[in-house]
């Protein structure tokens, strides 16, 4: 069958992992863009961002925004992987019908 790359079990696993990744990364993106204080340890701040800047919160907030956007981009990549897995699942079902 043309375009069939992975089997039904791998496609199902890809769908589940993609759904989990989209939800998790979308929530992280929301929390990072709202400058959640709980996630301060996950923000890659340097000494220049905190000590040498005259207005340190704005620089830290910019870093928060960048990390949040990166989470949204990663969530979009998981959507693409999930769509690929759905296509593979449909191709596997089509193959089952053609074989019988």
Describe the largest sheet.
Answer: none
Category by helix and strand content: mainly alpha
One letter per element, helices H and strands E, the order comes to HHH
Distance between the termini: 14 Å
The tally of helices reads 3
- Record field, number of beta strands: 0
Uncertain segments of ≥5 residues (pLDDT<50)?
none
Number of domains: 1
- How much helicity do the residues have? over 70%
Mean pLDDT: 87
Q: Return Rg in Å.
A: 20 Å
Strand share of the residues? Answer: under 5%
Mass-distribution shape? rod-shaped
Give structural notes.
This protein is mostly helical and 100 residues long. It has helices at residues 8-33, 47-50, 56-99. The chain has one domain. It is built from three helices and no strands. α1 runs antiparallel to α3. The mean pLDDT is 87. It comes from Maylandia zebra. One of its GO terms (cellular component) is membrane. Belongs to the RNase K family.
